[in-house]
Amino acid sequence: MSAIEVLAPGLLTTVQDLGREGFGPMGVSASGAADAIALRLGNRLVGNPERAAGLEMTLLGGTFLLPEGGVIALTGSDFGATLDDNPVELFASIEVRAGQKLRLGPTKSGARCYLCVQGGIAVKSFLGSASTHLLSGLGGFEGRALRRGDVLNVGGEERSFRKRVVAADTLQRLSPGKVLRVTAGIQADWFPDSSQQLFYSSVCRVREDSNRMGLRMEGASLKRSPVPARVTGEMVTEGISLGAVQVPESGQPIISFVEQQTTGGYPVIANVISADFSSIGQLRPRDEVRFERVGMDEARALLSEQERLLASEGLIQE
Questions:
Q1: Angle, alpha carbons 234-186-194 (nearest 5°)
Q2: How does DSSP assign 96-108, residue by residue?
Q3: Which of 53, 150, 222, 235 could make an S-S bridge to 121, C-beta 3.0–4.6 Å?
Q4: Could you tell me the residue range of the domain that residue 259 belongs to?
Q5: Spacing of C-alpha 152 from chain mean position
Q6: CA triple 79-144-177, angle to 5 deg
Q7: Are residues 18 and 141 in the same domain?
Q8: Are residues 219 and 92 in the same domain?
């Protein structure tokens, strides 16, 4: 079995797949890749199932050695990757010779870059997933971010290389953006028209204390209307969905994300649509975003179109 040796881990590098769905009632959030589209594309490029585990790097990439070589793909944001000091093409399959070093630096675009290797990262499954859940220390490689000296096994016995790239026009249509489309939240009527207009017209900035659990935003403060049913200053705790935009007493929104708490006690003014989850995953500290309201029918249509593009015959070109 081939392997990947971690010579330098980068800022935050973890093993991630598409997450563990269905365990919210037990208090376990899905985790998984913050930019699932990037991981799915990377796996397609190296001939893996879309759910295969890869490495997610955040803001600053690592340095890796493949002692026996392999077939890899880098997707997501541009981290200025080199293979033995030669630039590595993004969104393309690359053949790595035995002993070559892959180096990634600081991001030049979004927040996260993904390293997929043919055969997938082989770690013990937890609740049906290889994803690392950092807050609980479960899944992935010993439930933590990678460290210097870690050795990750790679699945599969045979290696075959076929040059593949993602079609440029389709890739452009799948690229993350800085406008997050949302549907109305379940407590949207807790906020007066003035606050809702402010929410949809103003720009929010991602705070530096954001993480995989949630993105804290800063901008104009959103005021709530008095709610007679409330006995205290906060609502009764309820289930929270991925992408929920909660508004605490400070008036500064928080977007729940892949390692979210499964319940919450803040009103939800909006919910980011599924088609824009990967856009959330590529937001960096100090990035500015705005919210755009869409209806449920449009949200479903946008997700269907995204899945159609991902399933299209011309997506991966050889």
A1: 80
A2: E-TTEEEE--B-S
A3: 53
A4: 179-311
A5: 21
A6: 40
A7: yes
A8: no
Domain boundary, last residue among 139, 166, 193: 166
Residues 246 and 281 in one domain: yes
Q: Which of 273, 271, 294, 266 is nearest to 190 (CA)?
A: 266
Residue with token string 């010993």: 142
Burial class (CB in 10 A: 0-12, 13-18, 19+), 140: buried
For the record, the structure tokens of 278 come out as: 């990967």
pLDDT of residue 27: 79
Whole-model pTM: value is 0.94
Q: Are strands 179-184 and 288-293 parallel, antiparallel or unpaired?
A: parallel
| Tens-place pLDDT, residues 25-45 | 787 888 999 999 999 999 999
State the alpha helices, DSSP H only, in the chain.
36-46, 168-174, 193-201, 277-281, 296-311
User: What is the phi-psi region of residue 51: left when phi exceeds 0, alpha when psi lies from -120 to 50, beta otherwise?
Assistant: alpha
Q: Is 217 among the domain residues?
A: yes
